[in-house]
Amino acid sequence: MTDLTRLSACQLSETLASGEASSVEATRAHLDRIAAVDGDVHAFLHVSADDALATAADVDARRANGEVLHPLAGVPIAVKDVVVTKGMPSTAGSKILEGWIPPYDATLVERLRAAGLPILGKTNMDEFAMGSSTEHSAYGNSHNPWDLERIPGGSGGGSAAAVAAFEAPLAIGTDTGGSIRQPGAVTGTVGVKPTYGGVSRYGLIALASSLDQAGPVTRTVLDSALLHELIGGHDPRDSTSIPEPLPPLVEAARQGALGDLSGLRVGVVTQLQGEGYQPGVLARFHESLELLTKAGAEVVEVSCPHFEYALAAYYLILPAEASSNLAKFDGMRFGLRVEPEDGPVTAERVMAATRGAGFGDEVKRRIILGTYALSAGYYDAYYGSAQKVRTLIQRDFADAFAQADVLVSPTAPTTAFKLGEKLDDPLAMYLNDVATIPANLAGVPGISVPSGLSDDGLPAGFQILAPAKADDRLYRVGAALEAALESTWGGPLLDRAPTLG
Amino acid sequence: MSTISRDEVARVAALARIDLRPEEVDRLAGELDVIVESIARVSEVATPDVPATSHPLPMTNVFREDVPVPALPVADVLASAPDAQDGRFAVPQILGEE
Predict the structure, then answer these.
(1) Is A233 helix (H, G, I), strand (E, B) or coil?
(2) B1-45: which CATH number, 2.40.480.10, 1.10.20.60, 1.10.40.30, 3.90.700.10?
(3) CA–CA dist A115, A12 (Å, integer)
(4) Which residues 37-96 in chain B show a CB within 8 A of chain A?
(5) What confidence tens digit (pLDDT) does each residue in A422-466 have?
(6) If you measure CA to CA, which chain B residue comes closest to A312?
(7) Among the options A23, A48, A80, A137, which is catalytic?
(8) What is the ipTM of this complex?
(9) What class of enzyme is it (chain B) (predicted)?
(10) Contact B32, A316 (CB under 8 A)
(11) pTM of the model
């Protein structure tokens, strides 16, 4: 019998629909895989076997009754721990939320449940999504399935590692500065950051509200489109949610896979290549560009001169918004409560003791940075100036999209680095996100598609960016590239990943 | 040499309601320089004629229908509270001694 964990979500969906396998069997197969390999990978913080099997059994029963089901019904999924799930732990990788059981579901989780996707569990991440390696998780880092000594990317390294290790065909990630796309690049998986407001943020534990966006983490472009269409669309409970229907994403992916890109203009961003980019990563990038040209696309070079200020602006905006969002973790209503060691037990002193004990180093660092940047007298000079850079970056994108339908770059400048290598150098860690951050600042959508293995044998990613609300272009171009690459490789990149367990 | 002093870090930590150990204050005093470098960098282009963007997609006055919906059950909300009493969150003393 087929190994159900090796199928894409789309293939598994067809297998379930044809009756070749049941959702209970598919869910069990993934739970068994988690039991076999997650000791090495550590992608999961919590495995919800009973919940997942109950959903699977329900879907099987409904299918047997002839009910019309969502295409992804019965296909299991993993959810990043920053997304709240009713009755299931949701720690965001922090000790301050250890043991907290949310009383409600995020909107996107409601949609997963309504469509009948068994939730396998919650995936590891840098604490409150602050990091690019999962090394800032309070529960220990995850490991890259390609090389267990290396980072799986971050913050959503758990979701990417779970999908790359065949522990789940689908996962949910969140992307504030690259936390879906960079883990996708370094694990050889597909990750999509939708247009800002394209997927409801209701029930996401907020990091930086003007940048955060949830999206799909999968092994194929088509699977991302299927998941994106399920979780996307307007939600009245998120006032930043786009009140218009999504463009047809699955259709765009299916059309792109046919391989004809004639008439498409692809803009190579001058500022997102060259110095600091690993030669093997650039080589794979240029090979992918050639394949797009062969498919009929025209490649042009575009300049985005203000992208070089993106990292500095991000470094001001993210901590400022995070310091405000994380004020709610005060030990009063939920989560950890710690009393001061001595002196009076007042609410204010309990808050400070709780936050001192419950937050990790990186979270404290960013809250202090943000509080400083927002404190009296500094607001205009700091947060205000960074917001002006956002305008300049948006203008760069507008100019570039006047010349090209999509923009492209390597997703991350390097392949996965060794665990611990950059832990003491926050600036080096941030440089990972240099190519992904501009999209968050401007609110435009982006995808990372595996582009091959670099000279060190580790995966590299190809990033495609599209104008706001034109997410369909990501899928058209992404699917065309994926099809062309897989025909040169003779199969998916992940077939070449080492065997685990 | 850091441009942000230990005292400044301690002051900001108090504003942020985070108890820091002395060694954490030392370390952060050095690391906060990065924000000064970032501001120097963005100031190169953040000139007065450039408007600020607070939100990637401009939206104003987002309304929804004013329809009553049931609130979360109080028992569910309090189930994960550190302390609760009589259907409410129980918190430590919030006012100083009279």
Answers:
(1) coil
(2) 1.10.20.60
(3) 15
(4) 37-39, 41-47, 50-57, 59, 62, 64-65, 72-73, 76-77, 79-83, 89, 91-94, 96
(5) 887 777 777 889 999 999 999 999 999 999 999 999 999 999 999
(6) B38
(7) A80
(8) 0.94
(9) ligase
(10) no
(11) 0.97
